[in-house]
Amino acid sequence: MTDMIQGEKPSEEELFYKRWGWETLKENISILNDVLKLFIVVDSAILSAYLGFYGKFTIYPWIKIVLFILLIISLCSSIVGIYPFSMKVNLNKPQEIKILKLKRVKFKGQCLVIAPVTLIVGFVALLIAILIAC
To answer: What angle do CA 10, 16, 17 make, to 5 degrees?
Structure first.
């Protein structure tokens, strides 16, 4: 015969951290949205300045094109990441809601990786081009 496993009542500290974990998970999507909004503003401002001074740069033309493409990728990644998408989900099934939200957090997180990486690579390419031109 199998032995019964006895459970213990969770402590107040364990309950506190469990509640905190759930609150953090719920807040992740709004935090990711806020950060993606900031990248949209930064990318738009940098892209506008870049286009305004495009003719004044004395660097290789291919670097100008690479920088432009990287800025566009960063901006598009932020826009796509913040854009809401819909899926059919049964609101009576918490597991489906959880899966939907976790997919959304993962997707937004991926967009949040692409946006800064392309922005930084663009700035590094610009810095290298400026150093070579000097």
So the answer is: 95
Is 4 inside a domain boundary?
no
* Residue 65 or residue 26, greater confidence: 65
8 Å CB contact between 96 and 90: yes
**Coil, strand, or helix at residue 59?**
coil
Using an 8 Å Cβ cutoff, are 96 and 130 in contact? Answer: no
Inside any domain, residue 11: no
Tell me the average pLDDT across 110-117.
94
Q: Do the domain assignments include residue 18?
A: no
What the block records as the tokens of 64 is 């100008």
Stated pTM of the model = 0.75
Residue the block writes with tokens 């070579």: 132
Range of the domain at 109: 25-133
Please tell me the total count of domains within the chain: 1
C-alpha pair distances (Å), 58 with each of 5, 43, 44, 65: 74, 22, 22, 13
Q: Are 100 and 28 in contact (CB under 8 A)?
A: no
How many angstroms from the chain centroid is the CA of residue 30?
A: 11
